[in-house]
Design a protein that fits this description.
CATH architecture of the largest domain in chain B: Beta Barrel
Strand order of the largest sheet of chain A: 1-2-3-5-6-7-8-9
Number of domains of chain A: 1
Number of helices of chain B: 3
Largest sheet of chain A: 8 strands, antiparallel, barrel
Distance between the termini of chain B: 70 Å
Helix content of chain B: 25-40%
Mean pLDDT of chain B: 94
Low-confidence stretches of chain B: none
Strand content of chain A: over 45%
Number of strands of chain B: 7
CATH superfamily of the largest domain in chain B: Nucleic acid-binding proteins
Order of helices and strands of chain B: HEHHEEEEEE
Structural class of chain A: alpha+beta
Number of domains of chain B: 2
Number of strands of chain A: 9
Low-confidence stretches of chain A: 14-18
CATH class of chain A: Mainly Beta
CATH superfamily of chain A: Lipid/polyisoprenoid-binding, YceI-like
CATH topology of chain A: Lipocalin
Number of helices of chain A: 3
Oligomer: heterodimer
Chain lengths: 182, 145
């Protein structure tokens, strides 16, 4: 099997000492919103793969770009062909760490705000990010939420002058995953 | 004569502008492609599709991703997802559980669950969005047989 970044990260999670407690989903939700005076654009992806190891706090996301759905077909076409170039860069990934995972794992608070740090790769560009999110214990697993801003320019996503005012300089990304223990 | 000629040009410009606006409106509001009605570009077994992605991701992306495929295989299980169902084909046990091909049915074409019994040999057509290093994902699917 071809060794890839995510495989290495998953392997690293598996190889952790002690009793790793891994939580997964194959149907996580990621949405993004662009708001400008001219128009609002939003897209949803309900096929996000996510894994969290609550022993180490390691977290991995894998997002297929062509799984984002827009209300307008033209926007979806432009997103894939012109902006994120999904034929060339078919996926986005995040691999990082939740800092307060010890407290969340041991004290088991119902909901807890956490700090997430790691590498976000979009459009072939990897950048370190540090954001806030929340974790919530559920009967059947863990619910994770995060909301943060991403600037397309930071990931070398070029917006043509003709539609520059239609797309926000910073796009809000909303993450919502229900992770089940594996 | 002069007045008539001017009126002609004014009308022509107005008609041209109206046509341009109409084209822009139609382009902006064009419908999403109906993948369920499209002919599959490839007919392939789920095992072959999965193996192709695992062995050479770039080559498989070029060949299958963003295309309508018809896949055949033995159904492992069915999972609910919002207003639709996901047909799950398992090809191997990975580090984090089952790996294989996942086909999400188009909400308007969700088959009767009686047709989706584990062990059934199914043919499903759908739009391939790629491989997330765990599963190959097909969306907007319909059951062929």
């Amino acid at each position: 099997m071809k060794a890839t970044i995510i495989t290495f990260v998953l392997a690293a999670m598996l190889a952790l000492p002690g009793q790793a407690q891994r939580y997964l989903t194959k149907n996580g939700n990621i949405s993004f919103f662009s708001e400008t005076p001219i128009e609002n654009i939003e897209a949803h992806n309900k096929q996000v793969n996510a894994a969290l190891d609550i022993t180490s706090g390691k977290m991995v996301f894998k997002v297929l770009m062509k799984s984002f759905e827009f209300e307008k077909a033209l926007m979806q076409e432009h997103f894939n062909e012109n902006y994120v170039e999904s034929d060339k860069y078919p996926s986005a990934t995040f691999d990082g760490l939740i800092k307060e995972i010890d407290v969340f794992g041991k004290e088991k608070p119902e909901t807890m705000e956490v700090s997430i740090e790691g590498k976000l790769t979009i459009h072939g560009v990897t950048r370190e990010i540090s954001e806030k999110g929340s974790l919530q214990w559920k009967e059947d697993g863990i619910k994770g939420d995060a909301r943060f801003m991403v600037a397309p320019a930071d990931y070398d996503i070029k917006i043509p002058n003709a539609v520059m005012n239609n797309i926000a300089k910073e796009i809000e990304v909303v993450v919502d995953v229900d992770l089940k223990q594996f | 004569m002069m007045l008539k000629s001017r009126r002609f040009w004014v009308i022509l410009i107005l008609v041209g502008a109206a046509a341009a606006l109409l084209v822009a409106y139609l382009m902006y509001n064009k419908p999403h492609p109906d993948y369920t009605a499209m002919k599959a570009e490839f007919q392939v077994s789920v095992a072959e599709l999965y193996a192709d992605y695992v062995q050479d991701l770039n080559s498989a992306n070029e060949r299958y991703t963003g295309k309508v495929l018809e896949v055949e295989g033995e159904l492992h299980s069915v999972e609910p997802l919002d207003s639709t169902l996901v047909a799950v084909f398992v090809l191997e046990e990975g580090m984090f559980g089952d790996q294989g091909v996942r086909c999400t049915f188009h909400p308007a074409h969700v088959p009767d669950e009686s047709l989706l019994q584990p062990g059934n040999l199914l043919a499903i057509k759908g739009y391939c969005t790629g491989f997330n290093e765990v599963d190959v994902i097909l969306e907007k699917c319909i059951l062929i047989q």
